[in-house]
Amino acid sequence: MTACIRFDDVHAYYGGAHILHGVSFAIEPGERVALIGRNGVGKTTVVNSLLGIARIGSGVARIAGRALKNPRTFTAAQLGIAIVPQGRMIVPNLTIEENLILGAAPGRKGYWTLETILALFPILKERARSPGTALSGGQQQMLALGRALMGNPTCLVLDEPSEGLAPVIVDDVADIAAKVAAQGTAILLIEQNLSLVRRAADRFGVMAKGRIVSEGSMAGLDIAALHAHIAI
To answer: Which top-level group of life is the source organism from (predicted)?
Structure first.
């Protein structure tokens, strides 16, 4: 089985700044994997390596078995990866419906359509003609999730999805992650909210100083144990 995302000894840079130091991990189809750790340890650089924003100096990053060589920002989407970035990046001049339709640009067919997305997020259906930026922070996160799913990805990457959200909305994100996984989509969760990690992931990797320093299964692991893992 070909991994949706695979990193083998990846060293990544911003200019001359060496951020990732030999990162290796894989996400198989249908898996839910979380990368956890403090701010500044390189978690978002993993995402940016897929987008070509961070330069891979050595090692290999693969999407669906294809090695990324000088990837463009759209390469990941073409290969079946959808990314919900930090800050959500809702297009301000588009309605909610238009923002969602924008997510279908890769042209991949599958379960997720405008109809199934609006059924998953009733608030988006109610306000489909409103500007996307007129939504609350939590509703914008729902819109960003829906837009990503419109591309029918094989793997959904969530970069700090709980940032700035009320706990009740974080619970909603965890429920949505479970529904997405039930449709066969793998999930890579970049997150510091350990309550969300425990609910939304099957496996975890702990990052520190640009490396994955610990990995394990979420089965039977409690919040205290996760905190111990990231106190590195």
So the answer is: Bacteria
Structural domain boundaries of the chain? 32-41+72-230
Q: List pLDDT tens digits, range 127-164.
A: 999 999 999 989 999 999 999 999 999 999 999 998 88
Q: List all residues 6 or more positions away from 113 whose beta carbon is below 8 Å from its beta carbon.
A: 150
pTM: 0.91
- Locate all alpha helices (DSSP H) within the chain, ordered by sequence: 43-51, 75-78, 96-102, 114-120, 122-126, 137-149, 167-182, 194-200, 223-230
Phi, psi for residue 188 in degrees, rounded to 5: -110, 115
Question: For the chain, how big is the Rg over CA atoms in Å?
Answer: 17
Query: Could you give the CA distance from residue 221 to residue 232 in angstroms, rounded to a whole number?
Result: 18
Q: Give burial (CB, 10 Å; 0-12/13-18/19+) of 63.
A: buried
Rounded to the nearest 10°, the torsion over CA 222, 224, 230, 232 is -140
The whole-angstrom separation of Cα 147 and Cα 30 is 20
**The architecture CATH gives domain 32-41+72-230:** 3-Layer(aba) Sandwich (3.40)
pLDDT digits (tens, 9 = 90+) for 33-67: 999 998 899 999 999 999 999 999 999 999 999 99
